[in-house]
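Let's practice the habit of predicting before peeking. Look at the sequence and jot down your guess about where helices and strands might fall. Then scroll down.
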Amino acid sequence: MSPTLANGKICYLEMPATDIVRSADFYKGVFGWNIRKRGDGSTSFDDTVNGVSGAWVLGRPAAGNPGLLFYIMVDSVAATIDTVLAHGGEIVQPIGADAPEITARFRDPGGNVIGLYQHPA
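Done guessing? Here is the structure:
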């Protein structure tokens, strides 16, 4: 599937990491992201719908107390919480009452706080 290209689309993320291999394994295991090597040898990712890609970067502070917070869409926040924990993540905000959406937040192995979002049925 080719990505949608349009003016104003969020298309690339640089995620702070302390261990790129560990972060790549975490996101592949939890969300099924495609992990790949770029021409320069850096480790990159593509989300499951080829909408957003990015790379992990060393030497930057984690977004542990985020000003900017992004959410990853999942089929089930409850099931994903279990998967996050099984892969070494930490839940920092349990399932909330952001009605009608179902959300939670986790801390990844690099210390970044990221949201989970389940679209209402």
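How did you do? The first strand starts at residue 12 and ends at 16.
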